[in-house]
Amino acid sequence: MTKLTESAIEDFAIKLFEGLGYRYVYAPDIAPDGDNPERSRYDEVILKDRLTAAVQRINPHLPAAVLQDAIKEVERIHSPDLLADNESFHRMLTEGVKVSYNQDG
User: Fold this and answer.
1) All residues at 6 or more sequence positions from 24 whose CB lies less than 8 Å from its CB, including other chains
2) Nearest to 43 by CA among 78, 68, 13
3) Cys-Cys crosslink for 30: which of 38, 51, 69, 84, Cβ 3.0 to 4.6 Å?
4) Of the candidates 37, 99, 90, which has an alpha carbon nearest to the alpha carbon of residue 68?
5) Tens digits of per-residue pLDDT, 37-63?
6) Torsion, Cα of 60, 61, 62, 68 (10° steps)
7) Same-domain pairing of 58 and 8
8) Are residues 65 and 19 both part of a single domain?
9) What is d(CA 15, CA 43) in angstroms, rounded to the nearest whole number?
């Protein structure tokens, strides 16, 4: 009987997401001191350039200012309760981020 390990679960999840069209990136490669850094500090959780590109791709019909407001909402998630933060972030990913704006006046 094969032992279920964290590494096996991680490998399974990577293959699952790759099967859905996502691309795996080795974390040290995008670390602040990596070959292609995508964050300036290790405590930066959000990869802002990736988030911005995804928000623009998903919402091409919205003005840039509205997209920036949505990104700011995601970046504002911060409470002393990590579980609550994770739930808030998951809700934003699955249900969207609510922002208001005037269209055509």
Assistant:
1) 14, 17, 18
2) 78
3) 38
4) 99
5) 999 999 888 999 999 999 999 999 999
6) 10
7) no
8) no
9) 26
Integer Cα distance of 15 and 85 in angstroms: 27
Residues recorded for the chain: 105
CA-to-CA distance for 87 and 92, rounded, in angstroms? 9
The structural domain count of the chain equals: 2
The span from the CA of 9 to the CA of 15, in Å, is 10
Pair (60, 91) in one structural domain: yes
Question: How far is Cα 25 from Cα 81, in angstroms, rounded to an integer?
Answer: 28
What is the domain range of residue 66?
Answer: 45-105
Amino acid code (one letter) for 59: N
Assess contact for 73 and 92: CB atoms under 8 A: yes
Amino acid at 80: P
What separation in angstroms does the CA of 85 have from each of 42, 52, 70, 91, 102? 18, 20, 16, 10, 29
Record the pTM. Answer: 0.78
